[in-house]
Amino acid sequence: MKLLLLNGPNLRLLGTREPDIYGRFTLADAEALARATAERLGATLDCFQSDVEGELVAKIGAARGVYDGLVINPAAYTHTSVALRDAIAASELPAVELHISNTHKREAFRHVSYTAPVCVAQLMGFGLTGYALAVEGLVAHLRGAAR
Ligand code: DQA
């Protein structure tokens, strides 16, 4: 089972970016936790981060037939991007949308997700731990255990 973890804009700044909201862990910490979780469950996980919407769209477009599922933290594009939503839908891959913070406790513009309706699940508010939980949930979904 091959999984792809995608992180969107500004998440490469984790560790120093608004630590009261996002904590002090780094993107490398999050990717390492997600990869270790996947490997513990007998899967492999590749990681990709970009600040550029089109690069994320292209990566999802190339994922079909290569990966079995996606974990994606679309970051700010969650709240704006029809292109990312369409890319996830077109991939026909099961995707878990992940957020470090609970976006419903924050500004109203963060309460809307363009991408969640084309994902199998949305997970938020667990900080770093969410990267492990999202992988666990995706693997369970792919194995049929979450149905
Ligand atoms: C985020 C929440 C988004 O609203 C924000 O734009 C981010 C990070 C999160 O992981 O909590 O960049 O996706």
Mean pLDDT: 97
Q: What is the beta-strand fraction?
A: 15-25%
Helix content range of the residues, please?
25-40%
Shape: globular
GO molecular function, one term: 3-dehydroquinate dehydratase activity
Active site: 22 (proton acceptor), 99 (proton donor)
Enzyme class: lyase
Catalytic activity: 3-dehydroquinate = 3-dehydroshikimate + H2O
Describe the structure using short key phrases.
147 residues, alpha/beta, five-stranded parallel β-sheet, 5 helices, 5 strands, 35% helix, 18% strand, amino-acid biosynthesis, 3-dehydroquinate dehydratase activity, EC 4.2.1.10
Secondary-structure blueprint:
Blueprint: E1 2-7, H1 19-22, H2 27-40, E2 44-49, H3 53-61, E3 69-73, H4 82-91, E4 95-99, E5 121-124, H5 129-142
Parallel strand pairs: 1-2, 1-3, 3-4, 4-5
Helix pairs in contact: 2-5, 3-4
The protein binds 1,3,4-trihydroxy-5-OXO-cyclohexanecarboxylic acid.
Pfam family, one: DHquinase_II
Pathway: Metabolic intermediate biosynthesis; chorismate biosynthesis; chorismate from D-erythrose 4-phosphate and phosphoenolpyruvate: step 3/7
GO molecular function, one term: 3-dehydroquinate dehydratase activity
